[in-house]
Each structure stands twice: as structure tokens, then as C-alpha cells.
Amino acid sequence: MSYNGIGLKSAKGSSTSGHVQRSLANNPNRRRPQGSQQQHPTAIKKASQDKTNRPLAVQKQMATHMEKREIEVQVSELRDRLEDDESLPEEQIDAQCKALRAKLTSEWQEQQRVYSLYTSRKTRLSEEQQLQE
């Protein structure tokens, strides 16, 4: 006769029917004291929405960081492969890693230049509105 682990395991000998009722003391609309550890569900929802509504500049910075990180991951993977090979001296490994980093960075910069050549009217208007606010 329990519901979600609440109530009697058996109504036998309890002089009750074992029916489990909703607690009227649990009112989600009551006010919580300031500084309480519990957050209101709407506050939790708002906090998660704030992450998606970050300013455009922050989103661009994060995207730039992730793209640069991807370049470094590729360079690191090349270095690991070359070091496992053990046939190349350290200077050649460094030179190949530098060359790959320079190549990937120049490709990324070219890609950024191409993307920045044109922005849609919708994007330009939204950026202007954000700057005015």
C-alpha cells in the first residue's frame, strides 16, 4: 500500500485502509526565506536560459577558443605519433609541429576572413540592437 516508497508496506493491522494522500504542507508557491539553499524552479530555468542567451561577443570568443584548441589538439596528435616513431630527432619533430601549426592557423585565419566578408541583414540589425541596449 505504498506509493513511491511513502506509506505503509501493508495495511494489515494498522486499522486503516492504507490510502496515501497528498501532503497539503508541501506548497510549491510558498515564499522561501532569503538566502535559502533551495532555488525556486523558475530561477533554475532562468539560469539555464542565461547560458543560451549569452552576449554575441562571448559566444564568438568561445567559438574562437574552441577552434584554436582544435588546432592545438591536431598538433599534439602529430607530436605523439612522431615521438612514438622514435626515428626522428626532437628538432625535426618540433619543426614539423611548427609547420603544421602554421598551416592550420593560416587556413583558420583565411576561413575567418571569408566568413567576415558578408553578414546577413538580420545579423547586422541584431548586433546594432545589442549595441544600443
Automatic annotation (TrEMBL):
GO terms classed as biological process: mRNA processing; RNA splicing
GO cellular component: spliceosomal complex
Pfam families listed in its UniProt record: cwf21 (PF08312)
Compositionally biased tracts (Polar residues): 12-41
Key words, A-Z: mRNA processing, mRNA splicing, Nucleus, Spliceosome
Region described as Disordered: spans on this chain: 1-69
Top-level taxon: Eukaryota
Entry's localization field: Nucleus
Residues covered by the CWF21 domain: 63-109
Classification of source organism: Eukaryota, Fungi, Dikarya, Ascomycota, Saccharomycotina
Family recorded in the similarity comment: Belongs to the CWC21 family.
Full protein name: Pre-mRNA-splicing factor CWC21
